[in-house]
Design a protein that fits this description.
four-stranded antiparallel beta sheet, mainly beta
């Protein structure tokens, strides 16, 4: 019964930066990993990045490697997505997700709990 709340979205110019946050509460003791996904208008929800709670092992989509960084603060039960050098194609609603089972973590089906999302809009 984990609750996830995203924050930090907004309007940013191409080349700029944003940092998204996802605060987890409730049954966080059983979580294996946290992931970020995004969904643009008319597109399917796609994987962005993942980090495991215990080892801090990260995984990134090819489209964001070298630009985005995922991290977590175990004491605060919070995961972050640092978005640098953003592009107009990064415009989407960004969702935080939690996985209780050990999976690779790059698919929507790997996650059981989702936040409501935060809008990121990149202007050119």
């Amino acid at each position: 019964q984990v609750q996830l709340v995203e924050s930090g979205g907004g309007l940013v110019q191409a080349g700029g930066s944003l940092r998204l946050s996802c605060a987890a509460s409730g049954g966080t003791f059983s979580l294996h990993a946290m992931g970020w996904f995004r969904q643009a208008p008319g597109k399917e929800r796609e994987f962005v990045a993942r980090v495991t709670w215990t080892g801090g092992i990260t995984l990134y989509a090819d489209s964001v490697k070298g630009r985005f960084t995922i991290s977590r603060d175990n004491a605060k039960n919070t995961v972050y997505l640092q978005m640098n050098s953003v592009k107009p194609e990064d415009t989407a609603i960004y969702y935080c997700a939690a996985a209780r089972t050990s999976y690779w973590g790059d698919r929507v089906g790997d996650y059981g709990d989702w936040g409501h999302g935060t809008q990121v809009t990149v202007s050119s």
